[in-house]
Design a protein that fits this description.
Blueprint (H helix, E strand, L loop, with lengths): L1 H16 L1 H19 L5 H26 L1
């Protein structure tokens, strides 16, 4: 049971370590899911949007962290 608590604490810590990154990715996934669900965009295009969006978010958060240091 102790091991399970430690694993869950570590997972929670990973997501809360950079809250801005987690929120941005969740918003991106939600937006793309909504667009695909409403048939505004093709699922393949939605996948491309996820890829491009995640890479953009990662680059932005990494650059911001580098500037802070």
């Amino acid at each position: 049971m102790s091991l399970l608590k430690e694993v869950l604490a570590e997972l929670l810590g990973m997501f809360l370590a950079d809250l801005r990154l987690s929120i941005a990715v969740l918003l991106l996934v939600g937006l793309v899911a909504l667009l695909v669900d409403r048939a505004v965009v093709d699922p393949l295009v939605g996948g491309g949007m996820l890829l491009a969006g995640c890479l953009t978010i990662l680059a932005t958060v990494t650059a911001a962290a580098a500037r802070r240091r």
